[in-house]
Amino acid sequence: MCLNRYYTADGVRIYSQETWRRIAKTEGRELVQRYIDPVVAYYISQTKADNHAVREASCTCIAELASKIKQEAVQPYVTQLLQTLIVCFRDEAWPVRDAACLACGSFLLCYPQECRSALETLYPLFFNNLGDCIPSVRQGAATALANVVRAYGTEAYHVLEPKIREGLTGVQHQGNVHYGHSEWTAATRCGQTDWKFNKPSEPWELADGCIHLVAELAQIPQMAQDVAQLLPLMAQAAEHKHYLHHITLLETVCKQLPSIARGINKRAFKPHLEKFLGPIFYGLSCENGLTSSAASQCLNQLSGFLGPSILRARVEQWNCRYLEQLDANIHIAGL
């Protein structure tokens, strides 16, 4: 019942969550702690289930042990649980790999000393997910890697920084690959994707994952200066339009830029604003509705963060021809 609270099928998940609340009431954590030994044994056994959804739920439950259960109760099992997650990290099903990735990030954050010896094994797995063909897997890897930085500080960032720079600059080498309709649909509509769907990673996908990672790192106060130094590369990555799916990367930039700006603060962000105006206005006039909407919301959020007059002055200084588009976007947003 505890495991099925995270099962992918709505009926099973909702029923199990409600039943668990009725039985455990407010003592769910205490029950897990009291019976931690059989709970751990069961979770580990279910990571070997034939059903990929059960394996995925098991990884999520193991992550919950790290984040919600008292450390003294879980600590004796950390090594065993982490090794189980590493096996799941190599699973053939992308939802299992995604759940294992997030769970590993939680364990590294909560038990940094106990998990340190596994870093050499985990970094390549994290980086593989960061460039995965499934968008949610890339986002999960970014979240997990940010937790690694929270756990190990600059030591971890020095490992991540070369990969981020490699990913952002690698877009220039992206070929104009065209996937079949079924492949592209599977890769972009994660909720309806074949759980075994896989294809070789493309340079733009790694760049997309790196942008998510930059956004996650921006939420760590001590990383603000380092993140600011990555913004020129991020802007350059958004400028490349020679490949089919550049609009997807641009959508990610537009969605994440306001969050990055808020994370590193106005003073650090303002010197880099003009570098992004070209890609943002290109996205605003894009025929793709998702990218155009993301660019519109990006401008509105930056206006709210920096101040409408400051943003308008920067746009005018950069290229006064775009003031009409900026004003029209603000007018539409106010309707």
From TrEMBL:
Superkingdom field: Eukaryota
UniProt-listed PROSITE patterns: HEAT_REPEAT
Coiled coil: none
InterPro entries per UniProt: ARM-like (IPR011989), ARM-type_fold (IPR016024), HEAT_type_2 (IPR021133)
Residue spans of the HEAT repeats: 122-158
Name this polypeptide is given: TOG domain-containing protein
